[in-house]
User: What shape does this take?
Amino acid sequence: MEITGEQRRRAEANRLAALEKRKRLAEAAAARDGEWKLSGCQKTSTQALPRGDVPPLQQGPRAPVEQPCRFRVVLEICSPDEFCVTPQPLPGFSFPGEAECFRKIDACLSSAAVLCCTEIMGQRKTSIYKLKDYEIISGHLRRLQGLQLHEVPYKTRMAIEKSCCHFAGERWTSGRAPHLPDNEVDELLSKLPKLLRDALLPFQLEGVRFGLRRGGSCLIADEMGLGKTIQAIAIACCFISEGPILVICPAVLRFSWAEELEHWVPFCLPTDIHLVFGHQDNVDHLERFPKVVVISYTMLHRLRRSMLKRHWALVIVDESHNIRCTKKALECEE
Assistant: This one.
C-alpha cells in the first residue's frame, strides 16, 4: 500500500514534536543539574557573563588545622634512690617544646615540697627527684591537663627498695649508691689512663658518664660489638683506688677479661689480676690481695662464703642474663 501525502505530513509532524519534547527535557535536566552544582559553591562574581564563558572557581588557601598541644611525661628509675621526669612528644599531637613542658611541670609541682635537680642526659634535659617522693610527684602529675603519664610499675619500685638494703649489725641499712653531680663525674673521668680515654667513642663515653653518675650502679645493655667491656673497664678504673674489683663472667671468658684489663689499664700488672680456677685459687690463701679478681659463676657459687666476706669497690657481672632462679646448669663443670 502506498503512503499518501497526508500520512507523510502527519509522520513528519510527530517526529518533529518528539524531537522538540526530547530537547526540552534535556534542557530542563541540565538546568536542574547546574543549579544543584552551584548551590554549594561560593559566588565569585555578580557580573553577567556570556553563555558558555564560565570562569573556573577559585578556592582560597585552607586554614591549617591546629592540633591540640599535649605531651608525654616518662618517669624512669635512674639510681637506686632517685627517678627522673622527662617530657617527650606525644604522637598525633603538637609538642609545646621542652621549655614549656618543664614550665608546666614545675608549676604543677610547686605546691609539693620535694627536692629536685636538673640534668642533661645526652640530647635531653631531665629532672631528678628522690624515689621516696614518687607517690607525691606522680599524684600531682596525674592531675595536670594535656599530659600523658608513663609511670614506673609498682613491683619495680618495690624490688628496688628491697634490693638496695642489706642486713648489718642486726638492722637493715641502705646499700644505695649516691647520684653524683657532673663535677664529680668529671673528676672521676680524669683518673682514666689516656689510652683508655682516647679509645672511647662518643656514645661509649656517654655510657661511662651514665654509670658514674649513679656511682657505678648501672646496666650496660648495648648490642654485641658496641663496646660493653671497655665501658665497664672504664667505670671500674675510676673506682679501683677505693678497693679491689670483682669480675664475674662465664668460665671461657676469664682469660679474655685478664687480657682486656692488661691492655686498657697500664698500671694494672699481671700480678694485680687474680684468676680463680678452683679452690686452690681462693682469695683467702693469698698473701697480697690483688686489684682485680676474675671468677666464673660456678666458682663464685662454690667460694661464696669467702667472697662475701670481702669489701669490693665495684662488681662487674658479665653476661648477666646467666643470673636466674632455675636449676638448669649454666656452664660445664670446672
